[in-house]
Amino acid sequence: MFSTLILWSLFVISASGSKCDGANCNVNSRIVQGQISEQNVRPYQIALYSRVGTTGELGFCGGSLLSQEWLVTAAHCCFHNGDQVDHVQAILGAHSLYDRYENGRRVLNVAEVVVHPAYDASTFANDIALLRLANVVQITDTVQPVQLPYRSIATHNFAGFAATVSGWGIAADGAPYVSPLLRQKQMTVITDPLCNRSLFNQLTEHVICGSHESGGTCKGDNGGPMTIVQNEIDILVGVASFVSANGCNTNMPSVFTRVQRYLDWISEVTGVPILD
Ligand SMILES: *[C@@H]1O[C@H](CO)[C@@H](O)[C@H](O)[C@H]1NC(C)=O
Question: Taking every annotated instance into account, which residue ranges of this chain make up the domain Peptidase S1 (predicted)?
Fold first, then answer.
């Protein structure tokens, strides 16, 4: 039934990513039509490398920092061939993914993976997970938590809002590498019914869709942030979940888990307070 949608389950890259340096990467083809973000304008953006065991295939996803200890990503980023990943490394404060010596970057292991109890891999429902870092991370210019939606806006549908999505994911279907530099793209939030119609009426509840003219999120962007701006503060409204099986280079909406529906669970697990 869901064969027309694709959950980019773990984007498996062949090595540590060092193959993608400089001119060998076509940076114009990542997050389709997106732009390279200014350095550290999204200080909550996280890159996640994960595997099952110490020798399993390496997966890549995005995430967002919620506090000094917790981050949020997509549930499907936590599984590989049905097994839950247990070796996850989080890269915080990064811009140029493969530059190990970049200023302001922190690399931390993940100590605990909490997948939403109602996550359903067959329908993509509740595609959200919380990861606890093995060490508390210091907040700096380059590493900062993102603001969760306030209670006062938790019932808004945000339709028509301009939203920003970001990631190192590849936008071109079949492109072999993740983007070396963090990219971002503007989308417009659309209503659930409109999104549902565009995606063959297969949309589950608790999602938020972003429309864009050509190309949306892609492999490797998943788990990453969709934000809106209120009073000059970025608010995390979505976690990148899936796109149509037609691929990334289409004008079909990208689908995100709607964060505002999970505030109580997030707060319970992470201890992050939800503001009014
Ligand atoms: C999408 O459409 C289907 C079929 O009408 C419906 O069952 C489902 O609840 C809809 N999803 C959303 C999020 O509205």
Answer: 31-271
